[in-house]
Amino acid sequence: MSVNRCVSLFSRLQRHISSQAARSPVSTRSGSSVRQHQAAVVVCSRGVSSNSSSPKPPDTSLFVPVSLKAESSADGSVGAELTQPLDKINYWNYNQKMFSGVHYNRSKSICVFVARLFHQAFISFRKQVLEMTSLPADLHIVLSDICCGAGHIDDIYPYFMRHAKQIFPMLDCMDDLRKISDLRVPANWYPEARAIQRKVVFHAGPTNSGKTYHAIQRYLAAKSGVYCGPLKLLAHEIFEKSNSAGVPCDLVTGEERTFVDVDGRASGHVACTIEMCSVTTPYEVAVIDEIQMIRDLSRGWAWTRALLGLCAEEIHVCGEPAAIDFIKELMYTTGEEVEVHTYQRLTPFAILDHALESLDNLRPGDCIVCFSKNDIYSISRQIEARGLECAVIYGSLPPGTKLSQAKKFNDPDDPCKILVATDAIGMGLNLSIKRIIFNTLVKPNVNEKGEKQMETISTSQALQIAGRAGRFSSKFKEGEVTTMHRDDLPVLKEILSHSVDPIETAGLHPTAEQIEMFAYHLPDATLSNLVDIFVSLSQVDGMYFVCNIDDFKFLADMIQHIPLNLRSRYVFCTAPINKKQPFVCTSFLKFARQFSRDEPLTFDWVCRHISWPLPPPKNIKDLVHLEAVHDVLDLYLWLSYRFMDMFPDTAFIRQIQQELDDIIQQGVRNITRLIRATDTNVTDPLQTQQNSRSGHIGSANNSGRTVSNYSTGGRGLRGQRSSGMDSSLASRLVRDGLLTPDLLQQLQKEWSKEQGQDFSNRRESDTGHYNDKGKKKKKK
């Protein structure tokens, strides 16, 4: 067989494969006719819903081909003896010609995905044919017949398909994988809810409008009910309010189960975090709070699951009016109508015409809102320097500490009248705030790709925070909102003047059962790879999106080397941990390794791991570590309700966690002292240089306190932005995580060493200009 004829054969074969693959996914078995394959194309194309969205083609890089060795056929040279030898000399010189003129159909369906896999399979198939010293007899004869004109190009297709399925086993089950990852009708996942006719009531209104109050009143009046909230604090609040009203209510969160019945029997009412709600237990009334979070990129799936799956006669949803139209449309797919109740804000709040500009202008009832802990540290220190006390609340604090700080701020007899907080105050805490002051309008955010970026806060976020001013139940009946800096005030007014963007999509997340079915078809894939393939192949209706799974994949990759069964691995990877904390990640890894050895994680084991008992914090670094330890104990409790036999000492862990909460509360109460200690340990090398030049190293201010890197000295707008922690490059690098305190200290030593050398060199240089008697040498 000539080289040109061989080239022509493979060119025709690739064009044929391209046309077949571009039309449909693989549904042809090896040896079946191309006509049957083409018939399957019609069936596949009809199976695509007309209302489905048009996603990007799946990522073929997720599918790693199986390596095959080009070994000689057991048939020997039988094929050559029956026909003629195939001329494959110098065939690689014709690669460019073989690929020219081949174009794939760039349709938006799954077919492009299969076409790309076929392209890789064709290259592998061609390479194998060329590298094998002797081909199987049947393949040799077919190739010879086609080159001689006695066969059709279709005749080689079954052999190519056989090779393609050897290197890409998933091609043989592509239809099954597509069915498993079909997320277009999530309402059908909940047959118990679809078996009853539910009444959906939407309580719509802004913050502090009483919408949740009316829903809870119906919840308390029902024979049975479930409250689903976004935070543990909200679940605790409803739990306590319900029991105080004489309605027995249990508490269920990821880390806690509290039954009011002494025998442990479930009550008719339960308050839970939304991820923990049961979609199989029947209730008379269900309350879903903060329904606008259904569009959250990470947690939106939990609201979708609750709304579609709760088996309750009445579903009361509470949230922003921007979600009304979308919830109506979503309920239309289940055949359920939505009754809307709208509410107005009970107390007004006004946007002031002037910014705060200086911390000297603070008044009792003020709350400064920051979007980073470092800003909280800086501002709280500056407030303390003015002789004022302040409470501090941020997201990573334990719930008990948050409540303690809120109680301190709300207490009219406590001298603490100022609050410094992150947007964690937007939900779950009842605070007596007169004026909200935005320290900045820019906060770190995670986009749809899981990438972090700095963005101006949205109208919804601004309203959620600003709405905390002048609460109906507080002593301040009217609220005020402003900014710290003059330049930000018109931006805030512009943000609040806009209406909230309407909600258009709801989040979804692959379940453990779906991933298990995927693993059955792809047994060699890692969990992270399975989830990637699932999302890549998934088909969603235009009303839905697949939630960000980066945190899940991060944990899956972390414990991939640990031998765990798929279900246990999946559960571990859904654990809510802060991956920014190295100690928490290390603990997670140790928990998984101990679990894989089938060795229970006892109280003594945990105490050794966290070095319990722990002393009170001496600086901010110690406080951050205590917060991480608290998160580790939370992780233990979370896992203990999924693997009770392997995490048996829940009661003891909860006891030391309460003790740890008290230690953290003590640290937060003395946070300014911790900041001063941190300033002493991590000094600013640039500031040190300036002080050394002026001869005032370690000098004190008028109050006898060491001058702080955080203090502004009462300056206004520009002074606050350029002073304190933000005034030095080194401090900003530490704040942004680009420089560690240890590395900063090392740089300080090197700086001092270089300064000493420079001083010595200058002294020697100056000395060289003088003679022994101290007179200047004359130049020659």
UniProtKB/TrEMBL annotation:
One GO CC term on file: mitochondrial degradosome
Keyword annotations from UniProtKB, A to Z: ATP-binding, Helicase, Hydrolase, Mitochondrion, Nucleotide-binding, Transit peptide
Domain Helicase C-terminal: 351-519
Record carries keyword Plastid: no
PROSITE patterns given in the database record: HELICASE_CTER (PS51194)
Entry's Gene Ontology molecular function annotations: ATP binding; hydrolase activity; RNA helicase activity
Catalytic reactions on record: ATP + H2O = ADP + phosphate + H(+)
Comp. bias intervals (Basic and acidic residues): 750-773
InterPro entries: DEXQc_SUV3 (IPR055206), Helicase_C-like (IPR001650), P-loop_NTPase (IPR027417), RNA-DNA_Helicase (IPR050699), SUV3_C (IPR022192), Suv3_C_1 (IPR041082), Suv3_DEXQc (IPR044774), Suv3_N (IPR041453)
Top-rank taxon: Eukaryota
E.C. no: 3.6.4.13
First-level EC class: hydrolase
Pfam families: DEXQc_Suv3 (PF22527), Helicase_C (PF00271), SUV3_C (PF12513), Suv3_C_1 (PF18147), Suv3_N (PF18114)
Compartment(s) of residence: Mitochondrion
Region (Disordered): 685-726, 749-780
Cofactor or coenzyme needed: Mn(2+); Mg(2+)
Gene Ontology biological process terms, A to Z: mitochondrial RNA 3'-end processing
Signal peptide coordinates: none
Main location: mitochondrion
Bias kind Polar residues: ranges: 685-710
Annotated family: Belongs to the helicase family.
Protein name listed in UniProt: ATP-dependent RNA helicase SUPV3L1, mitochondrial
Species of origin: Sphaeramia orbicularis
